[in-house]
Every structure is written in structure tokens, then in C-alpha cells.
Amino acid sequence: MSDAALNATRPYEPTFGDYVALLKPRVMSLVVFTALVGLLVAPVSLHPVETFAAILFIALGAGASGALNMWYDADIDAVMKRTAARPVPSGRVEPGEALAIGVGLSGLSVVMLGLATNLAAAALLAFTIFFYAVIYTMWLKRWTPQNIVIGGAAGAFPPMVGWVAATGSVSLEACLMFALIFLWTPPHFWALCLFMKSDYDNAGVPMLTVTHGRKSTRRHILAYTLILAPAPIWLALTSVGGPVTLITAIGLNAWFVKRAVDIWRRDEEQAQHDSYAVEKKFFRFSLYYLFLHFVALIADAVIRGLL
Q: 57 near 112, Cβ under 8 Å?
């Protein structure tokens, strides 16, 4: 048999890049960054080695969640344009491999975070993985249009995990960092749904755009943006905030609310005419919105250290 024939019958061998993609590195980068900020602005400082270890194991926990999500959601990922190229639905990684990696990394990350920092941080990381993999992925996502509202808690826990890794306890500051991400998630994700609606229709996922329509989704985006606005301002007035965080919060929220109003005022004819330009701009800016708020917290921490 020729080499070409042998290669044609040989199963696909996953590459290192396939396994990295299984861990959702883009999502992981946001998790790592917000967890690091939560750890660095905490009133208790860890040794640099402990800090590195804590962030490493939080990142592994986030990756474990991503692998478990891809394992369970392979059926709906396969019919959505945005997710069809992921490692499991595309056939580059076997479902059993994804499950084994997700379970293995979950156990490793939780145990090692507990050994590197404290049991409270390890328990919170374990709950975060469980919340994303079981409560959101296996239950909420396919059951209710409020899936992203409740499920958004999974992405909001990392700065709290970082804070608890440093202090061993939860505080108002940690809760407000959680609230910032938790309240940011629905308008961020619903903006994406507005210009990716057919994906969720095809997959049968009960996103708000599918169950309640686009007009209702636009109202929800505005409502949640207005609810979100006070959270970063309140955070700026706590011990971890300062002038940079306050100015950032006021400026970003003014822009965010204005864009949410623009989305609320639009109808489908306008949106289709300009290929959902306003919705896409809102979605892209929402990423900067969250990132810049946490950068501002670091800036104020540096200023406090210099005074």
C-alpha cells in the first residue's frame, strides 16, 4: 500500500494546538487577567512564587471548564458557524479525550491551588468549575433564555478566587468585582446574539433572541447596562478603587449607556441595512470596557503603593 493510502486510512492525530484550543485560551486569558487583578489589589500580598502558582492553577481550572464545555456541547457546536471548527465537533479531539482532560485538570487545579494558597480558594475554584460545566453548560444553556444571566456567574468568580487566594476570605471589594463581570455579561453576550441569531436557531439553544425576539433583546441590553453602571462606580469608592477607577468608570459607562440606547432605538430594518454595525461595535467595545476597568484597579493600586 502506498504512503498516500496509508495516510488516508490513518486517524487524525491531534496536535498540541488542538489541545490548547480545547481549553478555550481566549476565555482563559480574561479569566487569568481578572483573577490576577483580584489577587494583586487584595490587602494581603503573596510571595511572587505563590502568586505565579495561584494564577497558573486558576488558569488550569478555567481550561478544565472549557474542555468539559466542549465535550458536552459538541452536538450543538457542530451546527453553529461560530463553534463548528472547535476541536471536538471538528473531530480533531475525541469526546472521551476532552472529558478526561477536563476532569483531570479540574482535580489537579483544585488540589494544587489549595496546596499553594488556601482551602477556601480551592473550594471556590471547584465551585466555579462545577457551576460552568454542570449548572450552566448541562442545565441552564439548553433550558432557559436566562441562561447567560445566571450562567454569567461562572465568568465572574475568577477575581473573587484571586482575592480569596490572597486573603482567605470574601469581602465587599471581591463581591463588587464579581458584580461588575456578572452584570456585564448579559449585554455583552446579547449584543453578539443579535448578529449571530441564526446560529442559536439552528442549534435549538433558547437564547433571548430566539425565545423573545430581537426587540425584547434590545430592551434587555439597555436594562442590564443601566443596572451595570453603578457597580464599577461603587467599586471605585472602596479600598481598592481610587481616582483612576472612578474616572474610568464614569467615562466608560457614559459611552456604554449611550450605545445601549442606540441599540434599543434600532429596528431590524436599520440593523440589517448596516449589517448590525452598531451591535458589533457595542460587542467589541464591551471587551475593552471590562478590560479597562480592571486595568484602572491596577493603576490605583500602583498609585497607593507609591504614596
A: yes
**Cα 59 off chain centre by:** 12
Quick check: helix, strand or coil at residue 81?
Answer: coil
Residue 47 is classified by DSSP as: P
User: Does residue 196 contact residue 82 with C-beta atoms inside 8 Å?
Assistant: yes
Q: Say yes or no: domain 14-169 is CATH 1.10.357.140.
A: yes
Alpha-carbon span 17 to 15, nearest angstrom:
5
- pLDDT tens-digit map of 73-101: 999 999 888 888 999 999 999 999 999 99
Q: How far is CA 186 from the centre of its chain?
A: 11
The torsion angles phi and psi of 146, rounded to 5 degrees, stand at -90, 15
CA distance 254 to 273: 26
Residue range 230-277, pLDDT digits in tens? 999 999 999 999 999 999 999 999 999 999 999 999 988 888 888 899
Q: Can you give the length of the chain in residues?
A: 307
Q: Decide: 154 and 136 in contact? Cβ < 8 Å.
A: yes
Instruction: Give the span between the Cα atoms of 105 and 110, in whole angstroms.
Output: 8
Question: What whole-number distance in Å separates Cα of residue 248 and Cα of residue 194?
Answer: 27
| Rounded to 5°, angle at Cα 118 from 106 and 28 | 40
What residues does each domain of the chain span? 14-169, 171-307
d(CA 283, CA 194): 10
